Amino acid sequence: xSLAYFMGSVNLWTALPPLIITSLFFSIFERSNPEGRVSDxxxxxxxxxxxVIGAGSSGAVVANRLTEIADWKVLLLEAGGDETIVSDxxxxxxxxxxxxxxxxxxxxxxxxxxxxxxxNKCNWPRGKILGGSSVLNYMLYVRGNKKDYDxxxxxxNTGWSFDNVLPYFIKSEDNRNPYLAANTQYHGTGGYLxxxxxxxxxxxxxxxxxxxxxxxxxxxxxxxxxQTGFMKAQGTIRRGSRCSTAKAxxxxxxxxxxxxISMNSLVHKIIIDPITKQATAVRFEKDGQIYTVEAxxxxxLSAGAVNSPQLLMLSGVGPADxxxxxxxxxxxxxxxxxxxxxxxxLGGMVFTFDKPYSVMDSRYFNIPSILNWTINGVGPLxxxxxxxxxxxxxxxxxxxxxxxxxxxxxxxxxxxxxxxxIVKANNGVRDDVWDAYYKPVxxxxxxxxxxxxxxxxxxxxxxxxxxDPHTAPLIDPKYFEKEQDLKVLVEGTKIALALGKTQAFxxxxxxxxxxxxxxxxxxTPWTDEYWGCFIRHxxxxxxxxxxxxxxxxxxxxxxxxxxxxxxxxIKGLRVIDCSIMPKIVSGNTNAPAIMIGEKGSDxxxxxxxxxxxxxxxxxxFKQALSIHVEESNIEKGENFVSS
Length: 643
Known about the structure:
The protein is an alpha/beta fold. Helix 3 (59-66) packs parallel to helix 19, helix 6 (162-172) packs across helix 19 and helix 16 crosses helix 18.
């Protein structure tokens, strides 16, 4: 037999050296690339200084900032895996729900909302992936209103006023729009988190802003000095791709030797000593094996407003009677899972128009668009899930200056734009409702304004369905339990209708699709009662679950954590995520979640002053990695050498 029979063609073998060299080159590049993928740790120690549960919008930040101290060993636990190529594409936001990177939660059946959805339940997408819900969301960068944070402090949460939290927003930010970044009082550059307007938008956003001006609102930066007004959306994107907190805060520091990231790790409980009330360890499951890992200093719970209260209750921290019903030993009796808040909206309005501008699969997901995004990072696929504009407006119930009570999300499309293939299922719309109302306008050029209630009076609950950590918790948002919430949202809907009648939108042939919504036939069309019925049927969550581990002073018996985010009655345990919000902010919650992670990290550092040796090591670490370490008010403290 010939030599070629065993070795193949000579051409193949002569090609191997350059192939090997090329592979090594790209391997080296990947290791040095600040956006290179995170590796799942192959080593889990028996103890760490800190254990962070949840690698989402807050947890990724905490893991980054704590490991700035080189002597602090940190284990970051994430129930999901790494991001995908598809999740990098901003325009695919609505495709990511109900996939393996989503917890795929649903509310319990509602009696006064979600009535057009299957089983009267709303879908509640939550990220189960490195980066958490910052991978599933629509990437909108919104901080909320100054008065939100001043109100937090007025409730007794010292250190949480707007002046206190603004530096943390700025610290994270790398704003890449020069006209925005020039306002250094409100914006930052050089931070881990890239913020910018998307490179692509349709002509509709111009009509949106001009229409707002016709209604008497200013065109401005609503993350600046004033919130009330209209703006082009700012997003957490970088070079045309999604900039999740995993990409922003974890990938650049993935090679820190003191950071172990364990993916696909489902936490079962936090172990608390029943005598000392000290949180000592975390028990979790990975690849079918159970691990118990101890924390020398603290355990940080950053699992979000659904999973953080669930894990606290599984660990014996929560309403005593509820825990006892599952035979869970009570470590401390706290109102965990109460005060649940969300931004509820009307998501089903349809406006038709005469121009070929809408977000449609055939226009966006085609070979030229894909190549343009892949090669240049521009084009239609950089749209923020179709959301092009944002606005904050005042209903008749808004009585304070620059504290609007309704937010608009302007979308260059509607649920009908994909012919009922994705959005219908994401929202859980019943077939009969879809066929009667939406099917007649499938595939037409449409746009929508989603009016969103900013400060709901209604609050819901998170409760355990089982003592089994694999079982989803019971989510009961209790939307519109307080009638005032519905009244405010009806007024916001009227302003949205008025926007469609402005000259800016009439010039493109805009018409409101005025079919009667199924289930509301008994009401006179266009009355408050009719719009209230429409809202109760197509009640859309904006995925902003908050408040379920409320922050408050010791005098507040509804609080779960104190203003330093420590869980009342338990030592060595903090909650750092949106669940600590005493009241939900007046805007999207991803940027506030990142701010909470930044501030929470500094609160931890303040409680664990660096020793001389740790201080010296931290300074060297800072210089080597060009990172920021807060060095003020460093006192001599515990000299602990980790293993």
